[in-house]
Write a structure and sequence with these properties.
- InterPro entries: CMP_dCMP_dom, Cyt/Deoxycyt_deaminase, Cyt_deam_tetra, Cytidine_deaminase-like.
- Pfam families: dCMP_cyt_deam_1 (PF00383).
- Its EC number is 3.5.4.5.
- Belongs to the cytidine and deoxycytidylate deaminase family.
- The chain is α+β, with helices and mostly antiparallel strands.
- 23% of the residues lie in helices and 20% in strands.
- Strands 2-1-3-4-5 form a five-stranded mixed β-sheet.
- It is globular and about 40 Å long.
- Bound molecules: 2'-deoxyuridine and zinc ion.
- 2'-deoxyuridine (DUR) binds at residues 33, 36, 38, 40, 56, 58, 65, 67-69, 99-100, 103.
């Protein structure tokens, strides 16, 4: 079945978008952005009910900047792993922000089937924001793909 039609994430309306926006806004306030002055906060619901979040962290070597989504993925892994069911990120004014291309790829790795994202243009699925994505499923040699995981990362 097409991931966008699976229901692991539940219906978009049932997802806790308000709580995610609040967590993203709280994370945004922790951003380290002396160069761009463009704080970003990201938050996501995991498949076991946690909310993980992250902020952008810039660097004097500008290109080394970590997007908020990088920080979120790191927190996901450090707090028990799992998969992302719903994702939201906000700018300094609290407005929804579309993750940059690199971050869509980062999020794709940890998506739950049917993962939903709150974006500037409304609620979208991962498939919609990153169609025909490259992922662990393309690493044909099992030795090089995510150890012991299936396409969606669940252990079997
Ligand atoms: O998806 C994105 C896009 C941009 N930024 C950050 C990086 C940089 O610090 C600032 C301006 O690009 O916004 C993120 O955190 N996530
Ligand atoms: Zn990014």
């Amino acid at each position: 079945m097409d991931e966008s039609t699976t229901t692991t994430a539940g219906s978009a309306a049932d997802l806790p978008w308000e709580a995610l926006a609040e967590a993203a806004t709280a994370a945004m306030r922790k951003a380290y952005v002396p160069y761009s002055n463009f704080p970003v906060g990201a938050a996501a619901l995991t498949d076991d009910g946690r909310i993980v979040s992250g902020c952008n962290v810039e660097n004097a070597s500008y290109g080394l900047t970590l997007c908020a989504e990088c920080s979120l993925v790191s927190q996901l892994q450090m707090t028990g792993g799992g998969r992302l069911v719903a994702f939201s990120c906000v700018d300094g004014d609290g407005n929804a922000l579309m993750p940059c291309g690199r971050c869509r790829q980062l999020l794709y790795e940890f998506r739950a089937p049917g993962m939903q994202l709150m974006t500037v243009s409304g609620i979208r699925t991962m498939d919609e924001v990153l169609p025909d994505a490259f992922g662990p499923q393309h690493l044909a040699d099992a030795g090089r793909s995510a150890a012991g995981t299936t396409e969606t990362g669940s252990t079997e």
